[in-house]
Amino acid sequence: MSAESLRERIFTAADTEGFNELALDIFRFQYENCEVYREFADALSRKPENVKKLEGIPFIPVEFYKSREVICSGMKPVREFRSSGTSGSIPGRHLLADPLLYDSSLLKGFLYAYGDPARYTFLSLTPLPGENPHSSLIYMIARLMQQNPVLRHGFFLKDAGGLRQQLSGPGFIPGKTILIGLTWALLDFGEKYPGDYPGLVVIETGGMKGKRKEITRAELHQKLKQAFRGAAIHSEYGMTELLSQAWSVQEGVFRTPPWMKVMVREVNDPFCWCSPDRTGGISIVDLANLYSCSFIASQDLGRVNEDGSFEVLGRFDSSDLRGCSLMIQE
Questions:
Q1: Helices (H), the chain
Q2: φ, ψ of residue 230 in degrees (nearest 5)
Q3: pLDDT tens digits for 36-91?
Q4: How far apart are CA 256 and CA 309, in angstroms?
Q5: What is the reported pLDDT for 210?
Q6: CATH for 101-253, among 3.30.310.50, 3.40.50.12780, 3.40.920.10, 3.40.50.620?
């Protein structure tokens, strides 16, 4: 099956049967065309001829992106995203062969969670795109801003006063303004300028990066609610190794777009899947990862709910602290 025919189906697999069928087709395609993934699948004796359902597909450990080039043969990378991690850690590298596919995924995913991005003013507490051209998060925020360049978007990591002025000025439109940023930067701003921000949507994306002590998401959201009184506190779940994002608009419960699925594996057995509401390792199917690998075993801990939504509860003890890491909740 050709890559073009698979690409056309990514955003149209609306039901479970269609999703699972496309996931198996993409597994076969990536097994044939991605050398790193084929080696991994062969080592586990998981070949296409003996994998008949989604649960049997091997999920490549996210750490492979640190040491290998995970990209399908014949594809030329035109952009490279790198994970942030902490100082001294080895970054993961995602070689992007089709930026238009990523654009479609991030824009359609935002539309699925929030509606038309052109309706929102985006204020960012991250570095400027030119300061970190390999950040998938910053690229995503910039693309969202570009959907309506007439609005007063901006990057304010080095201009907290300017951000405060915009949030308190006549240009602020309640319900139509999103403040999105790194966890530590949102906390820093909230401590410097606490106040009433009714109608503001605050989206934390993680990212203590050694600047603050890691805390649980519940503690984080409590601090943000105290600093941004009246604001809605949301979350984004994504990573360098994925081309899609999940969004949480209530109490840390994330929902995926239709072409993305989160599954939870037993900690000591990657082919044994947890039942709903049990904690385990988060594995992600991202069908938009067509030219790299759509099946990623992360180092995050979490649980999936009966309705398919999920929660992120922490990290494996032996894993690097990533930009979005949080300590395990009690």
A1: 3-9, 16-33, 35-43, 64-67, 99-114, 136-145, 160-168, 183-192, 217-227
A2: 90, -10
A3: 999 999 999 999 999 999 999 999 999 999 999 999 999 999 999 998 765 457 89
A4: 7
A5: 61
A6: 3.40.50.12780
